[in-house]
Amino acid sequence: MLKTSKQRQKGLKRKNRVKTLVNKNKVKKLVGELIRESGFNPEEERLRKTPERVAAMLKEIFASSKKDPRRELKVFKTSVKNEIILIKDIPFFSFCEHHLLPFFGMVHIAYIPVNGVIAGFSNFVALVKVASRRLQLQERLNDEIVDALMDILKPEGAVVVIEARHFCVEMRGEKQPGTVIITSSVRGKMKEESAQEMIMKIVRG
User: For the purposes of burial, counting CB atoms within 10 Å of the CB of 61, is it exposed (0-12), middle (13-18) or buried (19 or more)?
Assistant: First the structure.
């Protein structure tokens, strides 16, 4: 029996649906225990709803943690020349996998298309969002974004620069508020020194 187009679409939606790993009931219990072990009473009125709020927050934040970021890039062909395209100041936030504290900042993406093969600007925003909404390292986030570009768009070269503040730096250890950490991942023709210098000048304004 042949499936109708609607049946096929429903099947694809079920296949592509990402199930969150966050079990709200378990998280609520664990957060209550964490509050107690940190020296506070989770039964106090002011803290009574905190476990539930934290569980809901984590479920929302990590809802796409198993999605493949590369799926966010929808390729199409244009008549543009093989010049550098730069998408600057894409805001993001993520969680440091070492301390479970947030880090946040801006992502800058540049690439040189081949034969006019590009992706829409909003695709890059979605790519950054999916890649960052999980437990991460800033350096890995760089690599995951730039490798997605190279795999899907197959450009002559690409570079991803991330500027971020880390609460694990600002709240613990040396406690240096306002410290900005800059990392980059470079592929293909973007490894040429002149290209990197130009990108950093644009990023720095």
Answer: middle
Q: Which CATH fold would you assign to the domain 22-61? A: GTP Cyclohydrolase I; Chain A, domain 1 (1.10.286)
Going from N- to C-terminal start, the domains of the chain cover: 22-61, 69-203
Strands 75-77 and 117-119: antiparallel
pLDDT tens for 123-165 read: 999 999 999 999 999 999 999 999 999 999 999 999 999 999 9
The CATH number given to 69-203 is 3.30.1130.10
Task: Spell out the residues 6+ positions from residue 132 whose beta carbon is closer than 8 angstroms to its own.
Answer: 92, 93, 94, 141
CA-wise closest residue to 156 among 85, 90, 108: 85
Backbone φ and ψ of 167, nearest 5°: -65, -25
What does the pLDDT look like over 68-111, one tens digit per residue? Answer: 999 999 999 999 888 899 999 999 999 999 999 999 999 999 99
The Cα–Cα gap between 94 and 74 comes to 24
Of 29, 90, 98, 104, which Cα lies nearest the Cα of 61? 104
pTM: 0.85
